[in-house]
Amino acid sequence: MIEVKNLCFSRKDGSQEHVILDQLNLSVATAQHLALLGDSGSGKTTFLHLLAGLLRTKSGTITVNDQILTHLNDHELALYRRRVGLVFQHYELLECLTVKQNILFQHKLNFPHQPADEFNQLVDVLGLSHRLNALPHQLSGGEQQRVSIARALLHQPRLVLADEPTGNLDLKRSYQVVELLTTLCRDRNINLIMVTHSHQLARYFEHVKTLKNGTLDQ
Ligand SMILES: Nc1ncnc2c1ncn2[C@@H]1O[C@H](COP(=O)(O)OP(=O)(O)OP(=O)(O)O)[C@@H](O)[C@H]1O
Fold first, then answer.
1. Where is the ABC transporter domain (predicted)?
2. If you average pLDDT over residues 108-124, what whole number do you get?
3. pLDDT category, 169, cuts 50, 70, 90?
4. Is the pLDDT of residue 212 over 90?
């Protein structure tokens, strides 16, 4: 469950204050999926970073599964971030690690005593079982994105934020990735928010909103 109330966010541009989000409100029910559209520069990535706890704001509130992010101290926010699954446009895999090591790396770092129960099932569903010893540069873009999805889901997050995950893929691979991402999240009752420029891909989502002039359409 996500509740965003009167969220404002600005950045300093020299001496000028550049307003990016302006009194933004959003309510996403538990396990709901949302596609986020909007022109380039409208603030989609900024909004995802605020939801991920990577940025802070002083104005407005963000509540995710009963945690009010604005009230968390730095340590609590770091713990919150560990529980969010992130998927990026450029995959952000570690080049020197194999597929298997990439998928397990953050899990081992953040949850060293928690077994990675879902590993086998995830790599199987994502079609990666035969690529576990490959290095990222030996994979196609679609395969790399599937690795990053496995990494994002391994620690069983309740929220996955995907920032243009198909931005580097052709249409066929984009559909595959979105189909897998939405199915995996639906099966696990995970809230998914995906930024995309594609109205076609947004059709996979039960809810679609557009960010414009710092706020979301109703
Ligand atoms: N680190 C930063 N410092 C200053 N301004 C920034 C920074 N990051 C983003 N911006 C500005 O904030 C605004 C919103 O950027 P953001 O990346 O959130 O937009 P977006 O909707 O995700 O764009 P795109 O679709 O092109 O990825 C833009 O005007 C951008 O130039």
1. 2-218
2. 92
3. confident
4. yes
| Number of domains making up the chain | 1
Q: Look at residue 218 and tell me if it is in a domain.
A: no
- pLDDT of 218 higher than 80: no
In 39-138, DSSP assigns E strands to 59-64, 67-68, 84-87
Single-letter amino acid, residue 68: I
162 contact partners, CB below 8 Å, separation of at least 6? 86, 87, 88, 152, 181, 192, 193, 194, 195
CATH classification of the domain holding 191: 3.40.50.300
As a whole number, mean pLDDT of residues 115-143 equals 94
Query: To test ligand 1's pocket by mutation, which of 12, 36, 46, 194 has the most ligand atoms within 8 angstroms of CB?
Result: 46
Q: Is residue 62 domain-resident?
A: yes
Paired tokens of 3:
């509740």
Compute the distance between CA of residue 102 and CA of residue 93 in angstroms, rounded to an integer.
Answer: 6
Nearest CA to ligand 1 atom 18: 43
Task: Convert 82-94 to b/e letters by CB count within 10 Å (16 or more is b).
Answer: ebbbbbbbebebe
Q: Please indicate whether residue 102, judged by its CB atom, sits closer than 6 Å to ligand 1.
A: no
Read off the pLDDT of residues 39-83 as tens digits, 9 standing for 90 and up.
999 999 999 999 999 999 879 999 999 999 999 999 999 999 999
